[in-house]
């Protein structure tokens, strides 16, 4: 699965930018609050507008403090998957339950420096695991291959039936890095600059998909 991140799109033309990637599996929307990360992007009103102009499922990545308070609104608005950071969540089990009750999938994200082991038990409450392969906050950063160990761990837990989870990766995914991520066991690839800095974003999505499939 390929999920273009609109962080690298033209924010003045978001409807057009979504239309430019019609074969995407998900559209990845980065919500940043300038507290959890040192950058500020967009919030619920923009997500509600995006939901009006596309049928592609919206994947909200909340890089915000106090997701226990704010995440539910994205699920209620109709986002397909709502991902919160384990480093920010106060009660991640209740949060997952509330997101699913509101009608979305529940996603848990871990920063590059956060280990997976302490959260394995928690993951049974979640539908997706978003492994960050850059420090969250900005597009266009270099891929951190070290995090692929966490992808392999998660893949193993899924393949051996210990977890039922979709493994997503975010940060630095492009033509040079997607194959190693695919080999490590990623299901869903977020790509911002590799899609929206390309001359033809729609073709870039298809090229990444073909590479991921090997
Ligand atoms: C970064 C965001 C990413 C970002 C990825 O904090 O979570 O989704 O858009 O951008 P690229 O693909 O350019 O690394
Ligand atoms: Zn993201």
How do the helices and strands line up, and which of them pair or pack?
Blueprint: E1 2-4, H1 14-19, E2 27-32, H2 44-53, E3 58-63, H3 67-77, E4 81-85, H4 92-101, E5 105-110, E6 128-132, H5 148-159, E7 166-170, H6 178-184, E8 188-191, H7 193-196, H8 201-212
Parallel strand pairs: 1-8, 2-3, 3-4, 4-5, 5-6, 6-7, 7-8
The chain binds D-xylitol-5-phosphate and zinc ion.
D-xylitol-5-phosphate (DX5) is lined by residues 5, 7-8, 28, 30, 61, 134, 136-141, 170-173, 190-194.
Describe the structure.
With about 210 residues, this protein is an alpha/beta fold. The chain has a single domain (about 1-210), classed as TIM Barrel. Strand 6 (about 130), helix 5 and strand 7 form a beta-alpha-beta unit. Helix 3 (about 65-75) packs parallel to helix 4. The protein is about 35% helix and about 20% strand. The chain has an 8-stranded parallel beta sheet. The radius of gyration is 16 Å and the shape is globular. The protein has 8 helices and 8 strands. Bound molecules: D-xylitol-5-phosphate and zinc ion. D-xylitol-5-phosphate binds near residues 5, 134 and 138. It catalyses: D-ribulose 5-phosphate = D-xylulose 5-phosphate.
